[in-house]
Specification:
- The chain has 394 residues and is an alpha+beta fold.
- Helices cover 34% and strands 27% of the residues.
- It is globular.
């Protein structure tokens, strides 16, 4: 089993004070919740690389009836205000499944958004840390919305382009706020850029084909007519493939099924590949059209004054998507180091090219997963973004 991340203290011995004119309070009313949801839209309004999420999706994320993570996780939301105006927000989280899986005693923070003000950030973190102590936690890690199975980490390098679908984005000053408030790096995550027009190295392709023949590997697209059965097959591989990875926590049945339903609307079946050895599903890769291109066109809302203006804009933009995100590639224990990763990469590249996609992003990988990172580099991948998880002992 993966070991729990050890919380470390930074060199900061004195934390910044919270300004007297800043108040941080829990979200308690419907008006507070609306302010929490709406704050990022004001914060990022002049940032051309920010992709506004759909407001309805953000509300569903915080609704215990619609978000299966909230069936076992605890969530407390906080707002920072200055002279009555919202200047920051943060969520405190408790994931008992993560702590049980890793033998840890850590709380989490996420949904962090803040103006460029260390004092405001410190006020938000003080609120989360106080809540975490009340739960008996001895450390905090984040940002996580709400675990490694969702949006995770903060962007620290690669601000010159919009994020890929289901990847975080934030202002350049966020890492500085975290560090000034006593948080230190726990782990970096990498994103990689890959063009479908550049052929893979001949040696890699030759070795992969030999492995395909020798191991009796067959690769097929997901069968959407048997979607529920296919989801069960992928779920089994998923929980086996990442069990020993840093920060991983298995999804519950409800979480996995909910995410599968959410993704079904945007998947191209040809790009969800299952590799079988002698008829047994042992690996899969999931590549999605970069729906952020379409989301950006909607600007956060599907309707305006009751008219489906945002929806129409999003559907029209979706027809022009030419980028992809390879979101996950997993191989069952016992079937690794047999070239299955290269086979799935090659088949994905070939299919992407046939479907008219120009390329896209592979994300994310752990910074110290040398085997996977070298494999991506050997396929012509270029590191394009770096994300970071932070932690602090309480």
């Amino acid at each position: 089993m993966a070991s729990a991340p050890a919380a470390r203290r930074t060199a900061h011995t004195e934390l910044p004070p919270v300004p007297a004119d800043v108040t941080v309070t829990p979200v308690q009313t419907a008006a507070d919740l609306e302010a929490f949801v709406r704050f990022p839209y004001a914060l990022y309004k002049d940032d051309p690389n920010w992709v506004p999420p759909l407001e309805m999706a953000q509300r569903d994320l915080l609704d215990a009836k619609k978000n299966p993570w909230l069936e076992f996780g605890k969530l407390e939301l906080f707002l920072a205000r200055r002279e009555g105006r919202v200047v920051g927000r943060i969520a405190a989280t408790a994931d008992r499944r993560y702590n049980e899986f890793h033998g840890a005693n850590s709380g989490g923070f996420g949904l962090f958004e803040c103006i460029d003000d260390v004092g405001v950030a410190r006020g938000l973190f003080e609120a989360v840390e106080g809540w975490a102590r009340s739960q008996g936690f001895t450390s905090l890690m984040g940002p996580a919305n709400f675990s490694s199975n969702y949006e995770w980490s903060v962007l620290v390098d690669g601000f010159d382009a919009p994020p890929a679908v289901m990847m975080p984005y934030n202002p350049r000053y966020y890492p500085g706020l975290f560090e000034a408030c006593g948080y230190a790096k726990a782990k970096d995550l990498f994103a990689w850029e890959l063009s479908s027009s550049v052929p893979p190295p001949e040696k890699v392709a030759r070795i992969a084909e030999k492995m395909r023949e020798r191991e009796g590997v067959t690769v097929r697209p997901v069968n959407m007519k048997d979607f529920e059965t296919e989801v069960r097959r992928i779920k089994e591989i998923y929980n086996s493939a990442w069990e020993k990875n840093w920060g991983f926590v298995p999804m519950t049945e409800r979480e996995f099924d909910h995410m599968a339903r959410e993704m079904r609307a945007i998947v191209r079946p040809e790009l969800i590949l299952i590799a079988e050895v002698k008829g047994e599903p042992v690996a899969f890769s999931m590549t999605l059209p970069d729906a952020n291109f379409a989301l950006k066109a909607a600007n956060g809302r599907l309707t305006t004054f009751g008219l489906p203006i945002g929806l129409v804009k999003m559907l029209l933009a979706a027809q022009k998507i030419r980028r992809l995100r390879l979101i996950t590639l997993g191989i069952k224990e016992g079937f690794r180091r047999r070239g299955l990763d290269a086979i799935l990469y090659l088949d994905t590249l070939r299919t992407a090219r046939e479907l008219g996609y120009s390329g896209g992003e592979i994300s994310w990988t752990l910074e110290d997963n040398q085997l996977v990172n070298r494999a991506i580099e050997s396929m012509g991948g270029r590191r394009s973004k770096t994300y970071r998880l932070y932690e602090r002992a309480l």
